[in-house]
Amino acid sequence: MTPLRQSLRLYLVTDPHLCCGVGVIETVRQAVAGGVSMVQLRDKDARREDRVALALALKEVLQGSGVPLLINDDVEAAVAADADGAHIGQDDMTPARARARLGPGKILGLSCETELAVRAVPPGVVDYLGLGPVFGTRTKTDHKAPIGFDGLAQLVALSPVPAVAIGGLKADHQKAVRDSGADGLAAVSAICGQPDVRAAARAFSR
Hints:
GO molecular function: thiamine-phosphate diphosphorylase activity
Function: Condenses 4-methyl-5-(beta-hydroxyethyl)thiazole monophosphate (THZ-P) and 2-methyl-4-amino-5-hydroxymethyl pyrimidine pyrophosphate (HMP-PP) to form thiamine monophosphate (TMP).
Binding site for 2-[(2R,5Z)-2-carboxy-4-methylthiazol-5(2H)-ylidene]ethyl phosphate: 137-139, 168, 188-189
Largest sheet: 8 strands, parallel, barrel
Domain Thiamine phosphate synthase/TenI: 10-191
CATH architecture: Alpha-Beta Barrel
Number of strands: 8
Protein name: Thiamine-phosphate synthase
Number of helices: 9
Distance between the termini: 18 Å
CATH class: Alpha Beta
CATH superfamily: Aldolase class I
Strand content: 15-25%
Order of helices and strands: HEHEHEHEHEHEHEHEH
Structural class: alpha/beta
């Protein structure tokens, strides 16, 4: 298994509203202690300078852990914070432009919700795909219709790069995600805002 596939195993996407009890930084600290293997900083309402400042603080928390930090939808913030990479959607800058800004040594993820989007992934540009939503979720209201595990398996089979499932996933979905062929799953509300963040993450890693 490649290092990237290992990192995708349990992928935390932060939500500032769900994390408001203990804060994003402490949530990430506890989640990584519980087994999270990749972190995506997602805060669509933050100013870029605040996003960069939070990313720098998270880099300190993650130092020495081997857990990559990516920034959602803001490649410029990822560059400014020297994060490990960025994750973009279909309506953000093009993958080619994002890769040009990030450089060759950074991780670039791309959300894909349809077969057409997966087939259009440019070769040699994107490192992994975020596939879904598997289920509907309140943490992202503008998503397409849920694809379920059958739809996930179809997209995974088409993916030219490693893939992570996203969308309303919980710990008891681990087997179904593995059976689909995906390399891992991304969690938001199932970890962020839980009474015991570390235990919530550990439930996935078990």
